[in-house]
Amino acid sequence: MRMSDNQRFLILCIGNSLLLDEGFAPRVAEELLARYTLPSEVTVLDRGVMGMAMLTDLRQADQVLVIDALDNTGEPPGTVFQFKPDDLAERQIFHGAHDVRLIDVLNAASLLGITPEVNCLGAQVQSISPHEFQIGLTESVQAAVPLVIDQIVGWLSSHGITLTQH
User: What is the residue-wise DSSP string for 24-86?
Assistant: First the structure.
C-alpha cells in the first residue's frame, strides 16, 4: 500500500505576478506544471492573493504544501525556507506579502473542521515594490525556483508520489 492511497495533495501557490518577486510562487506553479505530469491525487493551484477564499481549496486536500514569497527573514534574496505554518505566528520573522496571514486562514479552516496537514516552502524576496507593475523575478529569486521545485518533488516522493517529467 502506498502512503498516498486515498490522500489528496495540494500545492498551493500564493502571490502576485505583477509585483516582481511577489510572483515567486506563481512562477513555481508554472514551471512545475511545465516540467511534470501530475497524478490525479496531486493538484497545483496558483491562487494569487485570495485570502479566505482558499478555505475551499483546503477543504479538498489532506496534505497541503504552501509556496510563497517571504520577506524580513534576515537572509539574502533567494534563500529558500522550509517551515510549518506555526513558524509564521511564533517567530514573526516569516511574512507573506499579503493582507491575510496564512495562519489566519488555517485557524479559520480549523474552526470549520478543515484540518489538512500543512507545510510551507518560500524564498526570501529582493523586491516586491516596483514603481510600476512589473512581471518577472529578480535574478536571485529566479534561481530559487528550481530549488523549490526539487523540494516539492521530494515532498511528494516522501508521501509515495512519483512525478513523471515531460
Answer: HHHHHHHHHHHHEEPPTTEEEEE-TT-GGGGHHHHHT-SEEEEEEEEB-SSS-TT-EEEE-HH
- Contacts of residue 87, Cβ cutoff 8 Å, sequence gap at least 6: 94, 120
- How far is it, in rounded angstroms, from Cα 35 to Cα 163? 9
- How far apart are the C-alpha atoms of 93 and 114, rounded to whole Å? 26
> Is the pTM here over 0.70, yes or no?
yes
The pLDDT tens digits for 47-77 are: 887 688 899 999 999 999 999 999 888 999 9
Cα–Cα dist 91/73, whole Å: 10
Compute the distance between CA of residue 75 and CA of residue 4 in angstroms, rounded to an integer.
Answer: 34
C-alpha cell at 62: 489532506
Q: Which strand (E) or helix (H) includes residue 124?
A: strand 117-124
What region does 157 belong to: left with phi over 0, alpha with psi -120 to 50, or beta?
Answer: alpha
Closest CA to 31 of 67, 56, 55: 67
